[in-house]
């Protein structure tokens, strides 16, 4: 069954909305944050912890990484990524476009696609809109992202416009390819196209209109949070949201901090992903209901209070700041796991709270009151 | 309340016994394997996983490591290691003797104790029987190990005898020190003395007799599994067991493989610890009910069967060999966690099975039939 989206509440003073996405692997209550499971594993966290502690409803896989390791043959033989990694809820895969530009070596972009060398062994590969659709089919994503080019920031207007046009032509090829091929494993695989256009309002407008015209089950905004000022990101995001259809979920790719997420929910975004909670967590940066903690700081050495007293039912409830600091100082793997769990659990808590406040209608003032707390360094 | 030990079953054809140790932090059903939590964390495993998946009943802490990091001041302020790491079942701490000899630098041994330099920052420290007792008190162990010297293998008879005599004199100082000091946190802390004597039967006999004469709540055998042939280890172990009192638990330190554990249970050992399940697990070596797996091997790349079908209720039940191999090949932290969970869960499963067969009286033939399976490389 094609992915559906219904509204379940609208905020009184912002464009925030609460909704419900239904996929063949189950329901996603929005707004939602999607933990990033790069190579089929959300780093340092078990699938059980993701389900029971983090309460994740959907996770991401990276097409670039999964294509290289374990490879689509293995994933096909497994019956798709859900069977391979034991995650039975929805999975979204990005198209690999972003990783090809940020990780791969010696990439060369043409109308046909992108030739690149693997960052692992230097082997040469070609990604095209068509074969990236085939790869995501075989990975078995519930939500397949269109193959796009994500230009860097800053970039020349002319380059960004040409890149956007290419992304649009690639989108049409993605749509055609998916129409010619079948769902790989019996459940529906839904395409989300991606708005590009850099930090240029007219390009963002044109791209949003083009993307909206394709009538996809959901739409994404890419190419933000790549170095531009936060205010620019919000402006572009607001512009895209004003054009992308209201009755389809909107996904802002690769964003961001807790306050970024709240601000963009206020603009009408429904879905987020970001490596920040896991990557920063592994570096000892904790996001909590009371603010930001650098857990390596000596000040926590004898602070035996819970890591985040505001997350009552967290898997971290039994662990103190002092213990977590000790684990980081002693380079214990458990520290990486606990910090990742803290940050992911907090991110999912935050979007659940946002959802409740949207439904109650007071999301706007709640967000304004909360953000200074979330930003403060403890 | 002082630690107690009761027999709950005796095997028909071997010296194996099933028992029940009671401490102020709860009951330990023997024979038992104790996961090693070097610096207050069993590497890559959460305390919840230890309780619910591994079903550990007691864990180890390393005095040497905990003394250096986080240090006894922090542990004292926390109210002991149980409070610090959130593990509310029994904890045993080794005396630091073994680590001082295997890890520390520029160590110098005298009658008084051992001067050494930290392997972390080169700082100088002195361990004496007295201060090691004080440290273990402050760590808050339920079972405190006597301070001993663990000679290498091979070693000269004369050296091993002198070392053993020193260990005995140190034991008497440990006993005196504990008698002069109080339990640190309101629950009873029990001393286990350690038999030494290397691979020399007459020294093992003398040491066992000396240790037995001290009337401790439990007794340990140290200095084995340090490079001697397996048969020598079994011979020394059998000799010690024949002398150490039958009505006290016997703890064989630092042993070993699954078959080592079964063979030594047959000789009358009740307690084991070893870094092997976690350390080898992190290197991709899995112990399973069907034999040993090198999970990095290419042969598992498309083997989608469970990691260990013989462990039905394991936390690993949702993960295939192919997925776990992929995690190792891709250097994912989750691979370290899952491999550690597999090995610890299997070790605890093995001693529970051993216990059931001892109580049923058929442990001897069960062990003989099982060991070839456990040793085979899949």
Offer a quick outline of the entry.
Chain A has helices at residues 47-54, 63-68, 72-78, 81-85, 97-102, 129-139, 157-180, 201-213, 230-243, 258-267, 276-282, 321-329, 333-360, 363-375, and strands spanning 4-10, 17-23, 26-30, 32-34, 59-62, 91-94, 105-109, 114-117, 124-127, 143-145, 190-192, 194-195, 219-221, 250-252, 271-273, 285-288, 291-294. The first copy, chain A, has 378 residues and is of the alpha/beta class. In chain A, strands 4-15-14-13-12 form a 5-stranded parallel β-sheet. In chain A, strands 5-6-10-11 form a 4-stranded parallel β-sheet. In chain A, strands 1-2-3 form a 3-stranded antiparallel β-sheet.
Characterise this structure.
2 copies of one chain form a homodimer. Chain A is an alpha/beta fold and 378 residues long. Chain A folds into 2 domains: 4-274, Queuine tRNA-ribosyltransferase-like (TIM Barrel, Alpha-Beta Barrel); 281-375, no CATH class. In chain A, 43% of the residues lie in helices and 18% in strands. The first copy, chain A, contains 14 helices and 17 strands. Chain A has helices spanning 47-54, 63-68, 72-78, 81-85, 97-102, 129-139, 157-180, 201-213, 230-243, 258-267, 276-282, 321-329, 333-360, 363-375, and strands at 4-10, 17-23, 26-30, 32-34, 59-62, 91-94, 105-109, 114-117, 124-127, 143-145, 190-192, 194-195, 219-221, 250-252, 271-273, 285-288, 291-294. In chain A, the strands form 5 sheets. The first copy, chain A, has a 5-stranded parallel beta sheet. Chain A has a 4-stranded parallel beta sheet with strand order 5-6-10-11. In chain A, strands 1-2-3 form a 3-stranded antiparallel beta sheet. In chain A, β1 and β2 (17-23) form a beta hairpin. In chain A, α7 runs parallel beside α8 (201-213). The longest helix of chain A has 28 residues, at 333-360. The first copy, chain A, is globular. Chain A starts with a strand and ends with a helix. The model of chain A has no long low-confidence stretch (mean pLDDT 97).
